[in-house]
C-alpha cells in the first residue's frame, strides 16, 4: 500500500519535472528560432537597404551624368551657333559702318535673325558693341521680328561682362535662377540662363563684306569692275547706269527669248548677259513614286495629298526640305506668284509691281494666302525631321540616298551632286501643284543671274567681243553643256548629258514654262521673305503675322526705288 503510494508520488513528480523540462525546451527552441528569424530579417533588411542605397546612388549618378551630358551638348550647340555661322569680317565691318550704310544695318539684322530662328529654344539675342555702348536685340516677344537698337553705358561694369572679357575662351554663363538684378538688359521671364560670347575684331584682317556691299562700295568709289555680277530682273534696272547696252550685239540675239527678257531693263534694253540658263521645279524620285503606286506626278493639290498618303503607306517620307536656307523659299513661292497672277488676269511682273507698290494684298489671292502656306505646312508635317536644321547639302543627301520622294526649292544645278551620291537614281521634274488646276503646275526656266559689262571700262569693247564669240561660236555653244555642264542660255546649243535638262526639253515640247517671277523683286526682299517663312514654320509667327510682314517687306525691300 505504502509502496503504491510512493510509486504514484514518484510518477507524479516525474511527470511534473518532465512537463517543465519540455516547456523549457520548447521556450528555448522558440527563442532560438525567433532570434534566428529576427537576425536573418535584420541582416536581410540591412542588405536590401544597402543594395537600395547603392542602386539609388548609381541611378542618381547616371541621371547626373545624363543631365550633365545634355547640358554639355546644349552649351556646345550654343557655342556652335555663335561661331560657325559667324562671318567675322562682315559683322565687324557692318557694326562699324552701319550708321552710314543701311545695307550694313541689314547685314546685322539678318545675322541676328538667322541665329534666332535657327533654334526654337532661344528667348532673345543681344549684340553689344563695347566701344560704342550700343546693342541690338531681337526677342521672342517681338512678333514683328524688328531688330531693336539701344545704348547702355553700364554693361562693362557688370560681373558677367568682366568675366567674359577675362575668359580665355571669350565666354561666360549667367544663371537666372536667383535674382535678375545687375543684368544690363531685359531677359524674358521664360529664360533660365544667358550665354555670353565675346566677338573680337582682328585688326590685321581687312573687312570683306558680302558681294553686293563690295560692289556698291566699288561703284561709289569710282572703281567699278570691268565685269560684275548681279541678279537678273529687278537688279537689271538697279545697275543700268553702269552697264553697257548689249541690245544690238550678236550675243543678245543668241539668247533664248525667256533669258533675253530676264536680261532686259524696264525700257527694253539688254543690259546683262546670262551666266547660265536655269530650271526650277519640284524634283522627284521616279522609283519611289512607282513603288507607292503613283503612275504620274501629281499636278493638283488633291493629287499631291493622295500621293503623300500612298508614299507614307509604303514607309516613304514624302519631302526633303532645306528650310534652313533663305533662298529656297523664293524658288517655291514664285510658282504660286505665277498662278496668282494668272487667276488675277495680270502678268506676274505686274502683280509683283503691285505688291511692291503696296496695292496688292496676299489675302486677295487664295493661291498665295491658302495654297502656298498649306503646301509649306504639308512639306513640314510630312518631311524630313528638323526642317530648320536641314541646309542645301543635307537636303541633297536626303533625296539622293532615297530618304524622301520629293525635293523642294531646288533646280537643275543639284543634279551632279545627287548623281555623285547615287548614280543610279532616276530623277523626274514637275511643276508645283499650286491649285486644283492641273494646267497651273508648270516648271520654270530662265536666268536669274546676270553678268554686267562696265560701260566705262577701258576694255569694254574687247570684253563685249569676247562674249559675242562665246555666245555665238561653235566652241561657245558646246562650252555651256560639255565644260560648264549647265543649261545653255542661248539658242541652238546642245543640252548637257543630264536627266533634268532632258526632262525639261521634253516637257517644254507640250507645255509652256512659267515666268521666272523671282526676278521681279530684289534679293534683299527674298532674304527677308525666307527669314519670315522660317519664323512661320518655327511657330514664332502665325500665318497672318507672316503675311503682314511679307507685305511690308515687299514694299520696303522689293525694288531699288
Automatic annotation (TrEMBL):
Keywords: Membrane, Transmembrane, Transmembrane helix. It comes from the Bacteria. InterPro entries: Bact_solute-bd_prot1 (IPR050490), SBP (IPR006059). The keyword Cytoplasm does not apply. The chain crosses the membrane at residues 21-45. This is ABC-type glycerol-3-phosphate transport system substrate-binding protein. It comes from Paenibacillus brasilensis.
Amino acid at each position: 500500500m505504502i509502496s503504491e503510494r510512493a510509486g504514484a508520488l514518484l510518477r507524479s513528480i516525474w511527470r511534473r519535472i518532465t512537463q517543465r523540462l519540455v516547456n523549457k525546451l520548447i521556450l528555448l527552441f522558440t527563442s532560438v528560432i525567433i532570434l534566428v528569424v529576427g537576425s536573418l530579417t535584420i541582416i536581410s533588411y540591412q542588405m536590401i537597404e544597402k543594395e537600395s542605397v547603392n542602386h539609388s546612388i548609381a541611378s542618381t549618378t547616371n541621371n547626373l551624368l545624363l543631365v550633365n551630358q545634355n547640358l554639355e551638348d546644349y552649351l556646345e550647340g550654343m557655342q556652335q551657333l555663335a561661331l560657325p555661322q559667324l562671318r567675322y569680317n562682315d559683322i565687324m565691318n557692318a557694326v562699324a559702318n552701319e550708321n552710314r550704310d543701311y545695307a550694313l544695318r541689314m547685314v546685322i539684322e539678318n545675322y541676328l535673325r538667322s541665329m534666332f530662328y535657327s533654334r526654337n529654344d532661344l528667348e532673345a539675342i543681344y549684340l553689344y558693341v563695347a566701344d560704342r555702348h550700343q546693342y541690338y536685340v531681337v526677342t521672342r516677344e517681338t512678333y514683328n521680328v524688328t531688330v531693336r537698337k539701344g545704348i547702355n553705358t553700364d554693361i562693362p561694369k557688370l560681373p558677367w561682362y568682366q568675366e567674359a572679357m577675362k575668359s580665355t575662351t571669350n565666354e561666360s554663363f549667367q544663371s537666372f535662377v536667383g535674382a535678375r538684378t545687375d543684368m544690363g538688359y531685359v531677359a524674358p521671364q521664360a529664360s533660365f540662363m544667358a550665354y555670353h560670347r565675346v566677338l573680337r575684331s582682328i585688326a590685321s584682317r581687312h573687312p570683306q563684306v558680302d558681294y553686293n556691299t563690295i560692289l556698291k562700295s566699288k561703284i561709289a568709289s569710282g572703281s567699278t569692275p570691268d565685269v560684275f555680277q548681279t541678279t537678273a530682273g529687278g537688279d537689271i534696272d538697279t545697275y543700268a547706269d553702269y552697264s553697257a547696252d548689249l541690245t544690238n550685239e550678236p550675243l543678245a540675239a543668241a539668247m533664248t527669248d525667256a533669258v533675253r527678257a530676264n536680261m532686259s531693263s524696264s525700257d527694253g534694253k539688254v543690259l546683262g548677259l546670262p551666266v547660265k540658263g536655269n530650271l526650277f521645279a519640284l524634283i522627284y524620285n521616279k522609283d519611289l513614286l512607282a513603288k507607292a503606286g503613283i503612275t504620274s506626278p501629281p499636278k493638283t493639290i488633291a493629287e499631291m495629298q493622295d500621293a503623300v498618303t500612298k508614299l507614307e503607306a509604303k514607309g516613304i517620307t514624302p519631302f526633303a526640305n532645306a528650310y534652313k536656307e533663305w533662298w529656297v523659299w523664293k524658288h517655291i513661292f514664285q510658282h504660286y506668284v505665277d498662278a496668282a497672277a494668272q487667276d488675277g488676269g495680270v502678268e506676274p511682273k505686274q502683280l509683283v509691281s503691285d505688291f511692291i507698290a503696296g496695292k496688292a494684298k496676299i489675302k486677295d489671292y487664295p493661291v498665295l494666302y491658302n495654297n502656298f502656306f498649306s503646301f509649306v505646312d504639308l512639306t513640314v508635317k510630312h518631311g524630313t525631321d528638323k526642317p530648320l536644321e536641314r541646309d542645301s547639302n543635307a537636303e541633297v543627301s536626303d533625296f539622293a540616298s532615297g530618304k524622301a520622294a520629293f525635293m523642294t526649292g531646288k533646280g537643275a544645278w543639284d543634279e551632279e551632286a545627287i548623281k555623285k551620291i547615287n548614280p543610279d537614281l532616276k530623277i523626274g521634274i514637275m511643276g508645283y501643284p499650286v491649285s486644283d488646276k492641273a494646267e497651273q503646275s508648270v516648271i520654270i526656266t530662265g536666268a536669274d543671274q546676270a553678268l554686267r559689262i562696265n560701260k566705262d571700262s577701258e576694255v569694254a569693247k574687247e570684253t563685249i567681243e569676247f562674249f559675242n564669240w562665246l555666245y555665238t561660236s561653235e566652241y561657245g555653244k558646246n562650252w555651256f553643256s560639255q565644260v560648264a555642264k549647265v543649261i545653255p542660255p542661248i539658242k541652238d546649243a546642245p543640252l548637257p548629258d543630264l536627266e533634268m535638262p532632258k526632262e525639261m526639253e521634253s516637257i517644254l515640247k507640250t507645255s509652256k514654262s512659267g515666268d521666272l517671277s523671282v526676278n521681279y523683286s530684289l534679293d534683299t526682299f527674298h532674304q527677308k521673305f525666307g527669314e519670315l517663312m522660317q519664323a512661320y514654320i518655327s511657330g514664332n509667327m502665325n500665318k497672318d503675322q507672316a503675311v503682314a510682314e511679307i507685305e511690308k517687306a515687299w514694299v520696303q525691300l522689293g525694288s531699288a526705288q
